[in-house]
Amino acid sequence: MMLITEHLNIALQGQSILKHIDLMIEPGAIVSILGPNGAGKSTLMKSLSGDIPDGLHQVTLEGRKLKEYSVPELAKYRAVMPQSVQLDFPFLVSEVIEMSLLTAVSHYERAAYVERALAMFDVSHLKDRNYLTLSGGEQQRVQLARVIAQITHKADDRNRYLFLDECTSSLDLAHQHQVFEVVTEVVKTHRIAAIMVLHDLNLASQYSGRLVLMNQGEIVSQGTVDEVLQEERITDVYGYPVKVTPHPKGWPMVIPA
């Protein structure tokens, strides 16, 4: 079983956004969706995660169309961190984490759940802070803790899917790599696929098992990192000349030509 779409087509306000998208995503890998601005990356992620109505009957999750799942049932299979998370009320950081609990638990279990989630991204010291007073990077790390806690809590044998849209955009270098190290460990130790929208080609190259390169609403290339990150292809898609050279530790590194 896996996450599958065949010939996915999405139009918004009469404009074609995604065209003939074919994807099969199995748990056990980080899959990064790449492409220039306006390529359709976020729309693809929203379609795969069930956030766009037209995608509900075109995407199959574990053998069932998304439209066949109730919202609470779907939350057991996938967790989503969109590009922007807007909270307008002064929730405590601990309360933001508690929002991801799918079942009632005791006070002790709830406290342990919050501590475990925040510890993943070194934000335990923010537990009692007003979420609205945090920096952009701190908010991003709290939201990452929330969705990863949701998808790993009381793990069973079901396959699960973690959707992260530009989840490192507000983070410094060290915290960017921390995020990918945590996600890599989660994917390795649970039956989870991490589907990530990224702009940073080199982060994608270093940590991904598979890449999906998009342009103008279509998939230009998908496959391993080496298969997708070809100089001519990246230059053509992004409209800017690049060189691809091996990093000392083995993965391809994309640099301006």
Automatic annotation (TrEMBL):
The keyword DNA repair does not apply. PROSITE patterns: ABC_TRANSPORTER_1, ABC_TRANSPORTER_2. Keywords: ATP-binding, Nucleotide-binding, Translocase, Transport. One of its GO terms (molecular function) is ATP hydrolysis activity. Residues 3-241 form the ABC transporter domain. The keyword Mitochondrion does not apply. Part of the ABC transporter complex HmuTUV involved in hemin import. Responsible for energy coupling to the transport system. This is Heme ABC transporter ATP-binding protein. The lineage of its organism: Bacteria, Pseudomonadati, Pseudomonadota, Gammaproteobacteria, Thiotrichales.
